[in-house]
Amino acid sequence: MKSFFQLSLIILFLLTLSSCSDSPLPPSTPTLVPSRSSRIADGAEKMGPANDHHPPMLHSQDWEEPIPMPGPINTAGGEDSPFITPAGKTFYFFFTPDVSIPAEKQLTDSVTGIYQSILIDGSWSEPERVILNDDLALDGCPMVLGDQLWFCSARAGYSGIQWLKAIYENGIWGSWEIIEYNPAYQVGELHITADGKELYFHSSRPGSLGANDIWVSRMQDGTWGEPENLTLVNSEEDDSRPFVSEDGQLLWITRTYKGTPAVFVSSKENGVWQEPVLIVSQFAGEPTLDNEGNLYFVHHFFWEGVMLDADIYLAKKK
User: Fold this and answer.
1) CB 241 within 8 A of CB 285
2) Using alpha carbons only, how large is the chain's radius of gyration in Å?
3) Per residue in 144-172, pLDDT tens?
């Protein structure tokens, strides 16, 4: 699965840019931001179930068969890194218009970045870009906790990938700031529990069993504590992109299974996370769920080793 964290290329590219400002943009308007479709290459093929060579495979009877997410979310470009709020009313994702080109090389296209869609009368609104900076930046992997938007970013004037937090106020996301955590923790894509006390993330830091492991860091006196490896959750495969249910009882992850990403879930018993169970396989990953248990994930379309498209899929809870 294509990862947002293509560190070396992003860093080399962004170090050539000018320094950034800490001031967020004023509210965006349709006249300032091009449409996603306007940046998708002519002739780009929209993939779907009818022409999918490796469709997602469901391994549980608790969900309906996965289908492309309805509404205007999916395009012939790449939709990735989904996050849905617990109430299921707001949906976030990362978009780039051409899946064949690294995201950092599409930085100046005015459309690559984080998007937001609102559920209105049962239908998803046309996604709008969430603009978080008035200088060049590559923002992605969104996660919302109340009025806080946590996201990863590669920005002019900063070294490497940073984790940032923006605040929702006066109808926009703004007032972003860099998250203070020990860089030795090597925090990858993360999820914070609803009570704000635990931070789950993936990392290949020392002590990992595979390429990436799931780690948890707990809030202690206002500081994130030393990460703990979730040994019962992790495997020798790549374990990444955690998502914790709002009640704190289910931990969803992406794990390599038979050579491609798949969605697994671990349950908590007597306060201990158990061995994860396979839910969806074959180019499926980055799970996110609403409080009704509906499962949203990324499905990448591949043919002969080439990624053709990336869409958000939905498996409704029965």
Assistant:
1) yes
2) 19
3) 999 999 999 988 777 788 999 999 998 89
